[in-house]
Amino acid sequence: MGSTSAHNGEGLGRRDLIKRSAAIGLISVPTMGFLSACASSGDGGNEKVEKGTKSDKNPLGVNASAPLDFVLFDGGFGQQYAKDAIKVYETNYPKASVKFTPTQKITTTLQPRFNGGTPPDLIDNSGAEQMDMGVLVGQKQLADLTPLLDAPSIDDPSKKVRDTLRPGIVEMGQFDGDPVWIMYYAYTVYGVWYSQKLLDSLDAKYPETWDEMLAVCEKAKKKGIAGWTYAGKYPYYVPFSLYPMIGKVGGREVLDAIDNLEPKAWEHPAVKTCFEAYYELVKKGYILKGTPGLDHIQSQTAWTEGKALFIPNGSWVENEAAKTMPADFDLAVSAPTGIDSSDKMPFGTIWASGGEPFIVPAKAKNLEGGLEQLRIMLSEASSKNFTQSVKSLTAFNGGTDGIELTPGLKSGVAALEKAGQNVVNPRLQDWYVALQKEKIGVAGLGEMMAGRATPAETIKKIQKYADEAAKDSSIKHYKHQ
């Protein structure tokens, strides 16, 4: 939610945003204001710099002396990986100055600049104040990244950048047709995270069926350990394990129907079965007491302290929770537990996809510079640096040779290998940010997981939200091709 996105350790920005929201739905107001402004903003006097001369060393035609303006979401991955990549840019273009702005308040920082027609050249559009990418694409505010993808890669000029990326990365950046609007830089494994040491201490193995899950949680409860915790204040973390479970039980076509905002998609039996399974965790007392009031850091801290066995999260958690994670924690991730052998997809079905979405505004002054900075970041050296420093994979298909993988990263790679082709990639958090976070997440799943709404009530509410989004002519709609 990212996304990963929507999901990459969104620190204070997210907490502040939700605190400011007096009622459900208010969080979307900044986004909508942003959109209407974008739709009407003029050129703002933002004259583009002259293009440089294309060459083997400068395939994108970067102006070697033009300044570069780079705004980064300062979340779970931190800033250093971006600073290191900027140093490479500055080495290659010593006459260029780079303005680097890390922030957790993406919309607050960038709305005035987009409104004035003076956006930066490269943006890591993540966190709670993430700008709605579906709307940005619909309002033609983003540059097509195809020139970057068709440029020669840093490491092997005989290969295009697109040929060095993990499967699905290019497609994730598309919305309608061939243009690619977003480069998802991180490669995130979503699922159920746990301490292998703690699981071993219970003389238990990771549960593959729901009966086994309940048995493990009961065993933990008898030891004074909760089965689960989650980011109660931001319950859109719950889908990191719930959505792939729905796909496992009912098939990936159920997730596609949900993404497509199809009528009655949320009423599918697989959705009902999985909601009822999660609700059983609530009713049996397997959720850590007080979880609905915890933010992502607090829930992760309780989990690393051994107060809860399982937590739904993304692979950024290894870096984000490092300060409180014991050295012998033995971090592991698994694909979500299914119901039983009647599930449509096998155990191991997991959600993995690009996270940390980078965009280049269409009105960027130094558009070529923004693309070139991304090209540098997609090199093997930058990818390895990112993986080593933040314990996460990148969109670059490789970059792990010679690196001693951390426990969580090693477990994530193993989970991907086990999944094989059984990788799902729900797109709601990319296509409909407000719907996914505020409505399905906070108003829907948040209420159910707090025990304040039944699965049937929650499904009815979420289907209503999805139907409203489908009928909203102000929203750009997308479908799986």
UniProtKB/TrEMBL annotation:
InterPro entries: Bact_solute-bd_prot1, Chitin_NgcE, SBP, TAT_signal
Gene Ontology terms: cellular component: cell envelope
UniProt entry keywords in alphabetical sequence: Signal, Transport
Subcellular location: Cell envelope
Pfam family, one: SBP_bac_1
SUPFAM superfamilies cross-referenced by the UniProt entry: Periplasmic binding protein-like II
Family (UniProt): Belongs to the bacterial solute-binding protein 1 family.
The protein, known as: N-acetylglucosamine transport system substrate-binding protein
Source organism of the structure: Streptomyces nymphaeiformis
